[in-house]
């Protein structure tokens, strides 16, 4: 089937295509999960007419970027390995989210507070997101160098 060859050749064969799609699916789902976990507090602040804390807004923005990126990069005919720098940027954005909320909540004792428990769980979702973006950026970097056709890196004209 020609469509199968076109779809899978960009991702390292059929197995690479399956792994790529599964990773992107989990990035999409966990991005939506982060939006929901942090959006609860933003919505509560909105209802109480209080300011939205920038840390929570940042987490929701990163979750939104992650979900949209994963959705776009899940398309099988797109050569996403050429966009590995964006995966690296997303990885660093998730490092910041994990650092901010890990510092706030990992050592916190919930003492029966459901909000603290939810945020402690959100920190581990942030860590999972960070690791998924690390894996996809490493895979994209590998596929980029594998598929560049033995051409020079900067101009693409010289044979290497």
Q: What do you see in this structure?
A:
By secondary structure, this protein is an all-alpha fold. It contains five helices and no strands. Helix 1 packs across helix 2 (13-47) and helix 2 (13-47) runs antiparallel to helix 5 (114-146). The longest helix is centred in the first third of the chain and has 35 residues, at 13-47.
Query: How confident is the prediction overall: mean pLDDT?
Result: 86
**Binned strand content:** under 5%
Kindly, what is the distance between the CA atoms of the first and last residues, rounded to a whole number of angstroms?
32 Å
Helix content: over 70%
Q: What is the H/E order?
A: HHHHH
- Compute the CA-based radius of gyration: 19 Å
- Structural class estimated from helices and strands: mainly alpha
The biggest sheet, with number of strands, parallel, antiparallel or mixed sense and barrel status, is: none
Shape: elongated
Put simply, the count of helices is 5
Low-confidence regions: 5-9
């Amino acid at each position: 089937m020609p469509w199968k060859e076109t779809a899978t050749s960009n991702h390292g064969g059929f197995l690479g295509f399956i792994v790529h799609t599964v990773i992107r699916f989990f990035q999409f789902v966990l991005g939506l999960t982060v939006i929901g976990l942090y959006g609860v507090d933003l919505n509560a602040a909105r209802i109480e007419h209080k300011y939205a804390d920038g840390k929570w807004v940042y987490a929701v923005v990163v979750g939104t970027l992650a979900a949209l990126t994963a959705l776009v990069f899940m398309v099988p005919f797109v050569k996403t390995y050429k966009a590995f720098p964006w995966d690296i940027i997303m990885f660093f954005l998730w490092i910041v989210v994990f650092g901010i909320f890990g510092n706030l909540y990992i050592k916190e004792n919930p003492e029966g507070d459901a909000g603290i428990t939810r945020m402690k769980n959100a920190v581990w979702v942030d860590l999972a997101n960070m690791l998924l973006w690390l894996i996809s950026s490493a895979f994209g970097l590998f596929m980029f160098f594998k598929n560049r056709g033995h051409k020079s890196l900067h101009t693409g004209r010289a044979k290497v």
